[in-house]
Amino acid sequence: MRLLKGINMNSEDYPASVFKNKIKSSLPYTLAVAIIGFVSLWIRTRPSEYVFLSNGFVRFGGNDPWYHMRTLNVLLENYPQRMFFNPMTNYPYGSYIHFGPLFDQMMAIISLILGLGSPSQDLINTVGAYFPAVLGALTVIPVYYIGKYLGGRKTGILAAVLIAFAPGQFLSRSIIGFTDHHVAESLFSTFFMMFFMLAIITAKKNNLRFEDLFNKNFNVVKEPLIYSVIAGVMYSAYQLSWPGASLFLFIALVYAVVQYILDNFNGESSDYLGFTGIITFLVSAILILPFVHPDMGFSLYYYSWFHVATATGIVVCFGILSFIEREFKNRNLKAYYYPLAIFGLGIFGLLAIRIASPPIYSLIINAPHTVFGVQTGGPSTIAEVSSIFYDGGVFTLSRVFGNFTASGFFASLLGMLVLIANAVRKPKPEKVLVLVWSVLILFTIYGQNRFAYYYSINVSILSAYIGGLLLEKVKWNELDEKFKSTVKSPADIPGFLKFLRVEQVLTVLAIVVVLIYPVYGSAMELTKGTGGPDGPWIETCLWLKSYTPDPGMDYNGIYEAPEDGKLFDYPDSAYGIMSWWDYGHWIETIGQRMPNSNPFQAGIGGRRGSMEEENQPGSSTFFTAQSEEEATEVLEAIHPDPEKEGARYIISDIEMATGKFYAMTAWTLDTEGYYQPYWTGSDYQYLPSTRYFDSMVSRLHLLDGNGLKHYRLVHETWAYQTQEAGYKQVYNLLYGSSVPEVDSGYVKIFEYVMGAKITGTASPNETVNINTTILTGQGRTFEYSQSTSSDSEGRYEFTVPYPTEGPIPGETQFDTAPAGAYVVSYGDITKEVRVNEEAVLNGQEIKI
């Protein structure tokens, strides 16, 4: 592969000495890029101690990285067969895998090579942890070359430095332990743009015409052809890392339309562009074809005919644009008719697609809102898909500055303005390409801030472009030539320094202070730790794995997807784990249990369009349910089989009960009344209301399930200082209660059981109480109690979820239970009752 512009190694007119001199002149820059790459890798591996814990546990960051490690382990267990349908999540439906295969395959191949065919789990975890950091460091290579061909080598070096230190989401998603495909998206999309740019530059330089291909004029065609093929390969790698890669098809199409129009107005041929586009996307359509799942139809989210159709469609678009341009020239038509012709054909094409394939038409029409539109309702609470410019509906630049720094962001805007001016004055294809690419990615972060890790690439390149222009203004190139001619050894450097001018020194200092130092400082702050499950969640999931019944599934097995309209055939021993969707991958991968909802936003339930919709069963409807009976109805409705419940265990944490509670209500579109203004003596404050305390998440986590008939606490982790005590204080004020105002377990596991029925007789219409003291595995105690009234014949009944005896083999090995017997009291009579686990699990009656 040759990236040296204008070098033809096979040319007889190109002396070997000149080629050697070119190589020699490139060596310092090659060495500089290599050093920058290693610095970038060092930055990304700094917080390794937060990933490789002292107890041997490897803590991957975020949520989706855990799922990638899950799919990686399944792949290695069944190599080369890959999991496509996963019944171990979104119980009782399972989920298709929408992740691309390439990211996992690269890690799998590396693991197999290093492990000599049988990699250990420690090796797999190590490869997985370091892999995103390596890909992030490699990104300096395409960024350097794009910068180089945009504004020279000095621009390329500066761009490489800026992306090496780029903070925000680009760094956080390429840091050690964040084993997600996002960094592969950035790397391969940037390589695609680099080779696409090189293909366009060389085709334009060679004055390529379609006739050159037909006439087998390979001296003209060879170089653009090679770059176009590699660009197609890189786009395919990008597509096979993320199904949504069609975003860059759209960028390429918009660029093509703009470039064709500019060329037509300037009276230039665009054959070079048509050739490049056709070859690039024809290659990508062919390479993507083997990965299509025909049963996915025309889905955007899974590898389907949509991806082949769109790549093929882009090939057709390039061909049509070239054909129209030639016809315009042959017929001597006015240049300003060309955009009108393109617009008319675009409308006609959409109408044709609507008739021929309504699914594709629907995807095309809805795609702009999906990518560029601001989300509302429940989706607006997903951190990565909310707008980067809005926080809680209020316009802000804080997220922008956090991702790119203030100087970097405004430098990128300035860079786009300069490129626009260049496009108006003397448009160069590579500059128009970078301009269109940057503008469209800027629009994507308006819709979804997750695309900040894309725009970091553009910020680095555009900021470096501005820096390069400043260096040109102070005649840095002359100084560079002077350095090459006068410095032959380190001893010559002092003599060279006399050629430095004050404005050159000040310009370099300005670039360092304004562009480089801010991103460096932000990067150092971000490498002081990593994300991922905290200690309580790790402990909770490991407890699930060890102390709950085996669901009867082959955890690393490959399962066939059920036929359309049918449920996956789970064994009778299978069950779900109800928690908020954020934690689904941790439950599945660390705990090896089946969550009802997951970070793919499956199993959340609720509403999407309006309050008139039925509130679908799921985690949002369960945790916001206003009574135990309502919550149980949700739990049972999750499973289509009326004989089975949707979940056996419920996991809550203090975040669900406080900070994340609004997100739960947002998914139901019913957010009012959970917090109300209360006079606190000096002003009004919004505090939890009775509606909040009636919610199931409050009943479970804050009140420990006290009084509930079918839900029992079976395990809790240690406590942290949180908002819990404050919430309990408000509860006591509202209800005149005396709940201890202390922090309890950060994460709690509850079990849904039938409950033992305790029956007896008292005087008719007598108030009867039952209570016991519960002792948790953390040594904490709390009171469990119920109250009822006997009927007209004096009969009363309690359903209680706790046994007073220990656990039994094959069932939950709980560490939280009553410290003694239940005490039933009415009038001046008290009776003790003991309950065994079988009675609780089977709903047996215990008569007093």
From TrEMBL:
<dbReference type="InterPro" id="IPR048307">
    <property type="entry name" value="STT3_N"/>
</dbReference>
<keyword id="KW-0808">Transferase</keyword>
<comment type="pathway">
    <text>Protein modification; protein glycosylation.</text>
</comment>
<dbReference type="InterPro" id="IPR026410">
    <property type="entry name" value="OlisacTrfase_arch"/>
</dbReference>
<feature type="transmembrane region" description="Helical">
    <location>
        <begin position="247"/>
        <end position="265"/>
    </location>
</feature>
<feature type="transmembrane region" description="Helical">
    <location>
        <begin position="96"/>
        <end position="117"/>
    </location>
</feature>
<feature type="transmembrane region" description="Helical">
    <location>
        <begin position="26"/>
        <end position="43"/>
    </location>
</feature>
<feature type="transmembrane region" description="Helical">
    <location>
        <begin position="336"/>
        <end position="356"/>
    </location>
</feature>
<dbReference type="GO" id="GO:0046872">
    <property type="term" value="F:metal ion binding"/>
</dbReference>
<keyword id="KW-0460">Magnesium</keyword>
<keyword id="KW-0328">Glycosyltransferase</keyword>
<dbReference type="InterPro" id="IPR054479">
    <property type="entry name" value="AglB-like_core"/>
</dbReference>
<keyword id="KW-1133">Transmembrane helix</keyword>
<dbReference type="Pfam" id="PF22627">
    <property type="entry name" value="AglB_core-like"/>
</dbReference>
<dbReference type="InterPro" id="IPR003674">
    <property type="entry name" value="Oligo_trans_STT3"/>
</dbReference>
<feature type="domain" description="Archaeal glycosylation protein B peripheral">
    <location>
        <begin position="755"/>
        <end position="846"/>
    </location>
</feature>
<dbReference type="Pfam" id="PF18079">
    <property type="entry name" value="AglB_L1"/>
</dbReference>
<dbReference type="GO" id="GO:0005886">
    <property type="term" value="C:plasma membrane"/>
</dbReference>
<feature type="transmembrane region" description="Helical">
    <location>
        <begin position="432"/>
        <end position="447"/>
    </location>
</feature>
<keyword id="KW-0812">Transmembrane</keyword>
<feature type="transmembrane region" description="Helical">
    <location>
        <begin position="157"/>
        <end position="176"/>
    </location>
</feature>
<keyword id="KW-0464">Manganese</keyword>
<feature type="domain" description="AglB-like core">
    <location>
        <begin position="536"/>
        <end position="657"/>
    </location>
</feature>
<dbReference type="GO" id="GO:0004576">
    <property type="term" value="F:oligosaccharyl transferase activity"/>
</dbReference>
<keyword id="KW-0472">Membrane</keyword>
<feature type="transmembrane region" description="Helical">
    <location>
        <begin position="304"/>
        <end position="324"/>
    </location>
</feature>
<comment type="similarity">
    <text>Belongs to the STT3 family.</text>
</comment>
<feature type="transmembrane region" description="Helical">
    <location>
        <begin position="123"/>
        <end position="145"/>
    </location>
</feature>
<dbReference type="InterPro" id="IPR041154">
    <property type="entry name" value="AglB_P1"/>
</dbReference>
<feature type="domain" description="Oligosaccharyl transferase STT3 N-terminal">
    <location>
        <begin position="51"/>
        <end position="472"/>
    </location>
</feature>
<feature type="transmembrane region" description="Helical">
    <location>
        <begin position="400"/>
        <end position="420"/>
    </location>
</feature>
<feature type="transmembrane region" description="Helical">
    <location>
        <begin position="272"/>
        <end position="292"/>
    </location>
</feature>
<feature type="transmembrane region" description="Helical">
    <location>
        <begin position="182"/>
        <end position="203"/>
    </location>
</feature>
<feature type="transmembrane region" description="Helical">
    <location>
        <begin position="505"/>
        <end position="523"/>
    </location>
</feature>
<feature type="transmembrane region" description="Helical">
    <location>
        <begin position="453"/>
        <end position="471"/>
    </location>
</feature>
<keyword id="KW-0479">Metal-binding</keyword>
<dbReference type="Pfam" id="PF02516">
    <property type="entry name" value="STT3"/>
</dbReference>
<protein>
    <recommendedName>
        <fullName>dolichyl-phosphooligosaccharide-protein glycotransferase</fullName>
        <ecNumber>2.4.99.21</ecNumber>
    </recommendedName>
</protein>
